[in-house]
Sequence to fold (239 residues):
Amino acid sequence: MPQLELVSSKAQIAKSTEEYLNSIRTNIQFSGRDLKVLTITSVQPGEGKSTTSTNLAISFASAGFRTLLIDADTRNSVMSGTFKANERYQGLSSFLSGNAELSEVICDTNVENLMVIPAGQVPPNPTSLLQNANFNSMIETVRNLYDYVIIDTPPIGLVIDAAVVAQKADASILVTEAGAIKKRFIQKAKEQLEQSGTPFLGIILNKVDNTVDSYGSYGAYGSYGEYGKKEEKRKKRKK
Fold:
């Protein structure tokens, strides 16, 4: 089984946001014991959904839960920069296309209790792969093997993949960057996830201006804390 190592910069982000993600994890747990397979998406790229997916998975694993993180953003995976490997490995696209067994694409990590299925090579037909029988059988298999399964999906504002995956999951969560996306687009994304028939757990507000939030330790969440600083500087210049 291939071994993936969480890169040091990502490990530092996970550590600095531990308290915040632990509170989100606890809220998920209180939402119902039967919510094991979770879809994570955003409206647009760059809002922090992959960082959130990774850190949420680490939070579950650190709490002692056997956790699987699936990178289903096969079009444009950014998670390949989150974990590094010393050997070649296959990913989700290889399994879904029938070119690898499930056991061959599940990778161990240096985070205790955390396993990862990387995205793999970019396929020519990402959406149809997520709709095939292999995806359905994978979800049913991993549901029985792990306590929690976190699935990072493409932004729902660009493609329907997240809604497709949500149909097979137990619940969905939307990550959005504070001040970056208009409310009507967030509302539309929420409605798309709800139309999948899967419970919508809520929105994680990312990259908040921590100058108006007493929780200063959240300031390192991705580019958390950067939002609003330009405005603050402009006001200072006016004075």
Notes: The longest strand covers residues 171-177.
